[in-house]
Structures are given as structure tokens and as C-alpha cells.
User: Fold these one by one.
Assistant:
Number 1:
Amino acid sequence: VQLQASGGGLVQPGGSLRLSCVASGSFFSMDIEGWYRQAPGKQRELVATISSGGITNYAAFVKGRFTISRDNAKTSVYLQMNSLKSEDTAVYYCKASIDGAVKWGQGTLVTVSS
């Protein structure tokens, strides 16, 4: 089973990026829970989650700027990031529960800089 995160890159302050997390492979149960991020020298922190029922939760520092969503098949989760700030610079990871075990994607680097 693979959890592939993509969509990161270099963007100027105020810009936008859309991250994708796609699960592939064979599994009995899979739930992509959401996105976390880890900036250099800091601990990994929650950015946004989405429940199997579609209920979303956001960290205070991204509310109103980021939107988490998923596809109908529930094998992909997206993070639309608008009004990016330099402090959003981090490696972004998606997290999933697959067959009862926690699995992390490999991370995608987001750099916000002019």
C-alpha cells in the first residue's frame, strides 16, 4: 500500500498551492485522515483533518485560508492552500489509517518565499 503526497513547490507569499494525497494498493479498509506539517526545527503539527463523514477540522493558523476535501471514492484527499505565508513553509504529510495501522505519506515540501 502506498500513500503518495504531491503538489508542493515554491510559491510567493499570497500565492496558492493544491496538495494531493492518493492511496493505492490492496487493502481492506482505508481512511485518509488529513494533513500535518513539519517546519525545520519544529515538531510535526496538525493542519487539517476530514472524517469519513466529511466533517472537517482545521488548525487555527490555517482557518479561512486552507480547505481540505476528498474524492468520492475516498482514496484521495486534497489540501487547497490560499494566501500562503512564509510561516507556512514546511514539509506537508498526509496521514491515513490503513487496515488498522497508521501510515504516513512521504511528504511534500512547500516553500513560501519571495
Note: The radius of gyration is 13 Å.
Number 2:
Amino acid sequence: QVHMVESGGGLVQAGGSLRLSCAASGIIGYINSMGWYRRAPGKQRELVARITSGGSANYADSVKGRFTISRDNAKNTAYLQMNSLKPEDTAVYYCNLETSLQGFWGQGTQVTVSS
């Protein structure tokens, strides 16, 4: 059974930092990529950052230069370091994992940035 545990969300003031973690277990198959999406109130879910097994990363334009995604393949864990946070970064952040067979989602973690 696949289990994904997200942590690190919370309330922070604008300009502050948070680090999200996503640990996956019970995965069958090769993990192609891990990533983070977010859904702000009243908006559709959007890609924040994604990293492949080889370490290639891509980011949403809105977070480039502020967020950094990394991955520990041995631990099936992905991290999202978020710096210089803005109120518009407020959202529920979801971890996503794609294997050669299917995709999986975490339960989401709330990030709230106050102005």
C-alpha cells in the first residue's frame, strides 16, 4: 500500500521561509518524478515544481528564484525549500509522485503567508 506523508506547512510572515517534505513508502515500480502542486482558494491546482529521478527540475515562473526542489532517491523523499514567501503563495500544497505504472498524491499541507 502506497503511503505519502507531507510535512512542513504552516503560517509564516511575508519574506519568511518554509521547507516542505514528502516521504513515500510502499512504492512499486520506478519513480520517474516527484513534484509539488498547489491550490489556492478559488483557483485551480497548479504545478509549483517537479524533479526527475536524474535531478532535472522545473518550476512555475511565479516561484523561480525563490523555491528549490530537491530529492533523496534512497529515501523516496522530496523537499521544497520556499524562501521569500509572498501572500500569494498561500495555498494547500500537494505532493505528487509518478512511477512507470501510475501517479500518487499526498493529502496536502496548508501554507499560509501573512502580509
Note: The mean pLDDT is 95.
Number 3:
Amino acid sequence: QVQLVESRGGSVQAGGSLRLSCEASGRTFPSNVMGWFRQAPGKERELVATINWRVGATYYTESVQGRFTISRDNAKNTLYLQMTSLKPEDTAVYYCNTNRPDPRYWGRGTQVTVSS
């Protein structure tokens, strides 16, 4: 069974940038449509962005439109989330999963902390 491993989170100041990675270890991604999710302290997990690599379509939640870019490198079995102009409200643990999240694929996530 494929495992999704998120990495490259960190702590940055507001306005900074990070690029998150999600590697599908052992096998290819479990779906053509993958997504990034995040969960802030005391809040429910929310969908941030999705990518359908077959048709080249992407989706972004309104709060990150114009600042985040989702991409996928199938040769490396890696999903990315390029985040720019980060805001304190982007602070959360970020996860990757299929766009309709499958409980089997939740990983540990990667922490992103944005200070003002």
C-alpha cells in the first residue's frame, strides 16, 4: 500500500515562502486527483488545493488563490505545494491525500508556522 509522506514545512515570517513536498513511497499516487489539506489548531481540517494531472486542472480554496501553486512530478512520485506571501493564518499542519480524502493515506503532515 502506498504511503504519503509530507515534508519541508518550517517557520517563516509573514511574506515568506515555502515549498512543501509529498512523496508517494513505494508506488505511484493512488489517484489522478491529489490534494493538499491543512489543519490549524482548534479547527477542522480543510482542503487547500487539488490537482488533476490528467487534464491539467487545479483548484484552490479562496484564501490561498494567487499565493499557492500545486504541482506534481510523476517521475519522482512527488506532489508539491509552493506557498508564497505567507500569512499568519496559514499556520497549520499540512497534509496530502486524494482529493476525496482516504483515511488510509493520512500521514503525519508537516508543520508550517508563519509569524507576524
Note: Residues 93 and 111 are 4 Å apart (CA to CA).
